Amino acid sequence: MNDPTGHFDTETDAVYAGASASDDPFRFDEAVARVFPDMIRRSVPGYTTIVPMIGVIAARFARPDTALYDLGCSLGAVSLAMRHSVKAHGARIVAVDNAASMIERCRHYIALDDGQLPVALQCADIRDIDYQPASVVALNFTLQFLPPGDRDTLLERLCRTLTPGGALVLSEKVAFPDAAEQSLLEELHLDFKRAQGYSEMEISRKRNALEEVLIPESIATHRQRLEAAGFEQVTLWHQSLNFVSILAIAPEATA
Ligand code: GEK
């Protein structure tokens, strides 16, 4: 089966299906990288809309001779979406992931792709790299894997990295302060996974594995952090159950 951007041939995710499936915390290892496009499409409602829309958003905000960052790029779905929509002269994509198995496969997909924009791959922690001036930064379901204590510093750095009026797209699984809303949207997410063919055993094993690895926060917390980091316009542009995407715009230069 193909992914929404049509770039990946996808093996079916059965990581938590077999009797021998591990009870260890979730890791982005070779087994996950192999099935990743199928896994994320069947686990994250809205993913197949969000990825091509990041291409659309990037096309509007990309500026000539700047970097476009895809942070926590996995197999490069966002990089490929940006590569096929951005026309800004001299723009270049920098795709970063700290999982070697992801970067290796990402390299393969980028090589197969015929887009014109250069794509540089970095196997590194997004907290440690030196950022070049950028007009677009995508954190598509990546910030949620950082310890909450590290999130403020990263977003402050990213706001400083962005050129005036540059855009950050932040997609996250979120939690709701209202218990009834939280439980309704969480239950509907489980229904979504059932409808995608995951068994009760797979759903509960994956849930346990992600506990303490993926830490969702509320929309209000994300909004406050983005504003405190210096972003000026913070807009929720997509929500599908408990998965959202926010567009945050860096301030224009002052005269
Ligand atoms: C997509 N954006 O397809 N530094 C670098 N990479 C990291 C770090 C870190 N500190 N922590 C996690 N990652 C992609 C999907 S997946 C989301 C992103 C998911 C990487 C991790 O290795 C993985 O590849 C990615 O962030 C998160 O649009 O699996 O739910």
Description:
Helix 3 links the parallel strand 1 (67-71) and strand 2 (92-97). The protein has a seven-stranded mixed beta sheet, with helices on both faces. The radius of gyration is 18 Å and the shape is globular. The chain has helices at residues 30-43, 47-61, 77-83, 100-112, 148-161, 179-195, 200-210, 219-228; strands at residues 67-71, 92-97, 119-123, 134-140, 162-173, 233-240, 243-249. By secondary structure, the chain is an alpha/beta fold. It starts with 29 loop residues before the first helix and ends in a 6-residue tail after the last strand. The site of ligand GEK has 21 residues, from helix 3 and strand 2. Ligand GEK binds at residues 28, 40, 51, 72-74, 77-78, 96-99, 102, 125-127, 140-142, 145-146.
List keywords for this structure.
8 helices, 255 residues, binds ligand GEK, Rossmann fold, alpha/beta, 7-stranded mixed sheet, globular
